[in-house]
Write a structure and sequence with these properties.
Mean pLDDT: 85
Number of domains: 2
Number of helices: 12
CATH topology of the largest domain: Rossmann fold
Shape: globular
CATH architecture of the largest domain: 3-Layer(aba) Sandwich
CATH superfamily of the largest domain: von Willebrand factor, type A domain
Strand order of the largest sheet: 5-4-3-6-7-10
Strand content: 15-25%
Radius of gyration: 22 Å
């Protein structure tokens, strides 16, 4: 994308996301992701005046002397966006609504909404751009200028590889981050998930998957026989998009999405699914509200 096009697209993203970030998402984001509780600091001997409820009875029983657990308040959150920049996410397909809106357009808008929401709440935001390898890493920082840098690099990315595999990016998260962070994966998830690795990330961090589909994936267009090409492998074939062929495509898509939901459910991670026709801000706000209600139910809060 030429530099002037990147600047123009960045201005459009800022204008499109300003109101939702400041009004629709501000309170929702803060309620769900801020004030996540306390972060463990140390175990030390009990001193007169310490809170009795902080006593660690297991350590006390082992040592014969009272010990307490000390925690520090999590005053800020580090947010990592793991963005799939593979060919299947960036392809421009015919038949999209909203003036040819693509998966990549939708993912850019989602990234902008999440980035500006985090910055608005004084959190640090970082980003990993990936294909079947790590293409670029931008460490978490605060501030609007950093947010603009993230989004500029997102719009300008030219992946060296066309394939998709989140394993290297998730491995990087596990190696780079010791404290608990929020990890948001933006992808079309056209790959098989490694449940063990996904579980390792979900166990250590707060993991949310955001799956973006196209209208034609959900409901294949009726066009009879058509030549199709795999955007990542380059393989070409003739597919039947008649009544029977479309039904097979629909069932395959549904089965793939069911497997994806099962993988995220198995590791106790959240998954948001939307498509290129969706209002991204509304979908995020609805997701935040649902997550907040579920958390309140689980904790009795």
């Amino acid at each position: 994308m030429p530099p002037h096009s990147i600047d123009q697209r960045l201005r459009q993203l800022q204008l499109r996301t300003r109101y939702p970030v400041e009004h629709l998402l501000a309170g929702e984001y803060r309620s769900v992701f801020k004030g996540r509780g306390m972060d463990f600091d140390e175990i030390r001997s009990y001193h007169p005046g310490d809170e009795v409820r902080s006593i660690d009875w297991n350590v006390t029983a082992r040592t014969g002397h009272p010990h307490i657990k000390r925690y520090v308040e999590e005053r800020e959150l580090a947010v990592w966006l793991v963005v799939d920049a593979s060919a299947s996410c960036r392809i421009t397909a015919q038949g999209h609504t909203q003036k040819g809106r693509t998966k990549w357009d939708t993912m850019n808008e989602l990234a902008a909404l999440l980035t500006f929401s985090a910055i608005h709440n004084h959190d640090r935001v970082g980003m990993i751009l990936c294909s079947d390898r790590v293409e670029q890493i931008l460490q978490p920082r605060k501030g609007r200028q950093h947010a603009l840098r993230l989004l500029t690099d997102l719009l300008a990315v030219q992946p060296r590889n066309s394939g998709s595999d989140p394993a290297p990016a998730l491995d990087a998260i596990l190696h780079m981050t010791q404290r608990r962070v929020l990890v948001l994966m933006l992808s079309d998830f056209l790959f098989d998930m490694d449940r063990e690795q996904l579980g390792a990330v979900a166990f250590r961090h707060d993991l949310v998957g955001v799956a973006v589909n196209t209208e034609s994936e959900i409901e294949p267009p009726p066009c009879g026989l058509a030549a199709v090409r795999d955007s990542e492998t380059g393989e070409e074939l003739v597919a039947d998009f008649g009544f029977t062929g479309r039904d097979i495509c629909r069932r395959a898509f549904d089965a793939r999405r069911t497997r994806l939901r099962e993988e995220f459910t198995a590791v106790r991670a959240d998954l948001l699914e939307l498509d290129t026709r969706s209002d991204c801000a509304e979908e995020l706000a609805r997701f935040f509200r649902h997550r907040l209600r579920r958390t309140a139910d689980e904790t009795g809060g």
